[in-house]
Each structure stands twice: as structure tokens, then as C-alpha cells.
Design brief:
The complex is a heterodimer of chains A (129) and B (161). Chain A contains three helices and six strands. By secondary structure, chain A is α+β, with helices and mostly antiparallel strands. Chain A has a five-stranded mixed β-barrel with strand order 1-2-3-5-4. With 161 residues, chain B is mainly β. Chain B has a single domain (27-160), classed as Calycin beta-barrel core domain (Lipocalin, Beta Barrel). Helices cover 14% and strands 53% of the residues of chain B. Chain B has one helix at 2-24; strands at 30-34, 55-60, 64-71, 74-82, 88-89, 96-105, 108-119, 122-134, 138-147, 150-160. Classes of the chains: A alpha+beta (129), B mainly beta (161). At the A-B interface, helix 2, strand 1, strand 4 and strand 5 of A face strand 4, strand 7 and strand 8 of B.
């Protein structure tokens, strides 16, 4: 029984480590460095979790169609170090500079973003792991 | 005495011309690898402000400048520029259209290009300007990205391999 429990713990540990590694992927694996993009829209949802916070931003295209973008940012700790809090985001207008995802989805990795009304700017200076 | 004066004058003139020619036509040929420690902090790590190639393969002749820019897990970008500044097409990854021009300006090389691609936000147009300078062992590239009326500039330093 003890052996089964120990093996179970090892399995769960490996599973969690794998999930963590998948979440903390490298930039070049997911994003296209040849496709820089600047977006302006309204934050409708916030994923405040490690290793990356995610902003969900409604952006209106030139044809009037609204597309919800997923914006990957730094982790909450890094954001808080630059003076940003969870409460600062939802409902705010934001300007994002970053790079498009390789898979063609409305996903972007933010190198910086500016909360327009709050006049708060975040510059992502996370080093590669 | 007069002969000496003439000889020195001729030597100085020829020397000045030689320096002038050397300064006017720097050669950027070689394989250059990005030195992260000497480059702007904002271009390295997981979230670059402006993307720079990890390595540049450059072949320069009297009239042309061929560049192949490669980066980890990114599609390479290559171009053969005419050094007279005429516009050429850049061989960009699928889905990207890019044209640019290169011109030697004294001791620097200036490359300007316009890149366009489609995105879920519509068609995107980005302008780049690169200013290259070199020493015997280092290549410095100052790159400006302009998009939607906003510009930012970063610097990368490459070591000669």
C-alpha cells in the first residue's frame, strides 16, 4: 500500500511539473518574432495566475467586428512589482505591444502594455528561463 | 627641400584618399552572432521589445549585400540588397510580404524595410529601419520599429565568428 501511495505521489509530481513546464513555455515556441503587433481595446477578463497573467481584450477591427484577444503577460508577482494590482485591469482601455501567436489565433505575447486611463505602463523584462 | 614638400603632400593626399575610401565602403561580410550581454536588455529573454536575429550571415560585394538572418525556432529571413538603394523583395516566411532597401552612408549601412501580414485584427504594416556599424570584431545594429504611429528603438551587438 505504501509503495502504491509513493508511486502515486511521484506520478502526480511529474504530472504537475510537466503542466508547469508547458505553461512556462519559451517565447519562440509559441510566438512569431517576425510578426509584431500593436492592439488597442478594452480588458473584459483577467487570468491572474502564475506563471503568466492573461488579459482578455476586446479589439474592434476596421470593419467594426469585435475580436477578443488573449494577451499573455508576465506573472502576477512581476506585475505587482511594477505597481499593478488585480483590480487595475478589467474594464480598462489598454494599448498592447507584442507579437502574434504562430498558430494564427488572436493571441499575443505582450512585451509592454499601457492602461490608458490609469496611465500605468508595464514593460515586460522577464529573462528567459 | 621643395621636392620633400611635394613628396609629403602627395603622400598625405593619397593617404587621406585611402582613409576616405575605407571609411566610405565598410565591409559587413561575415558570420555574426548576437551577444546578449552587450545588447539592449529589452531584446533578450522571453518577451523581446524588438526581435533581432540570433545570427546574421552577410556577404557583401561592390554592388550587393546578401543577408540571411536566423533565429531560434523562427523562420529565416533573407534578402539580397542592391547597395545603390534600389528597392528589393525580402524573402520572408510564409504569410509575410516585405520589401526594403539598403544604402551605405559613410561608415554606416542603413536598411529600411516595410513588412505586411494579415492578423485577426486585420492587415498589419510595420516599418523597420536598421543602422549598422562595425569594428573589427563587433557589429552593432540599431533597429527602429514603427507601427500605428508609434516607434521604438533598440540596439543589438553581434560578435564576429
Amino acid at each position: 500500500m505504501r509503495v502504491i501511495l509513493a508511486l502515486g505521489r511521484i506520478f502526480v509530481g511529474i504530472l504537475l511539473a510537466t503542466l508547469s513546464l508547458q505553461a512556462h513555455h519559451s517565447f519562440s515556441a509559441t510566438y512569431d518574432g517576425n510578426k509584431p503587433i500593436t492592439l488597442r481595446g478594452k480588458i473584459v477578463k483577467l487570468g491572474w495566475q502564475n506563471p503568466h497573467a492573461h488579459l482578455y481584450v476586446d479589439v474592434t477591427n476596421a470593419d467594426g467586428k469585435v475580436v477578443t484577444w488573449e494577451v499573455e503577460s508576465a506573472g502576477p508577482t512581476t506585475l505587482m512589482k511594477q505597481g499593478l494590482r488585480k483590480e487595475d485591469f478589467v474594464g480598462q482601455e489598454v494599448i498592447i505591444k507584442g507579437f502574434l501567436a504562430k498558430d494564427g489565433t488572436p493571441t499575443v505575447n505582450a512585451s509592454s502594455f499601457t492602461l490608458v486611463e490609469a496611465k500605468k505602463e508595464f514593460v515586460n523584462d522577464e529573462k528567459a528561463p | 627641400m621643395r621636392r620633400w614638400t611635394v613628396a609629403v603632400s602627395v603622400a598625405l593626399t593619397l593617404g587621406a584618399q585611402a582613409i576616405s575610401i575605407a571609411q566610405a565602403a565598410p565591409d559587413f561580410s561575415g558570420t555574426w552572432r548576437l551577444n546578449q550581454a552587450k545588447s539592449s536588455r529589452a531584446i533578450v529573454g522571453n518577451t523581446p521589445d524588438i526581435q533581432f536575429a540570433s545570427q546574421l550571415e552577410v556577404k557583401q560585394s561592390a554592388t550587393d549585400l546578401a543577408i540571411v538572418a536566423t533565429s531560434v525556432r523562427q523562420q529565416p529571413v533573407s534578402a539580397v540588397y542592391k547597395l545603390d538603394g534600389s528597392k528589393v523583395n525580402v524573402q520572408a516566411p510564409e504569410g509575410i510580404t516585405e520589401s526594403g532597401e539598403a544604402k551605405l552612408n559613410g561608415t554606416t549601412l542603413v536598411i529600411t524595410s516595410r513588412r505586411s501580414f494579415s492578423s485577426p485584427a486585420g492587415d498589419i504594416v510595420v516599418d523597420f529601419k536598421e543602422v549598422w556599424t562595425r569594428t573589427a570584431s563587433e557589429l552593432t545594429v540599431e533597429k527602429t520599429r514603427t507601427q500605428s504611429g508609434d516607434s521604438s528603438t533598440q540596439k543589438a551587438v553581434y560578435d564576429k565568428l
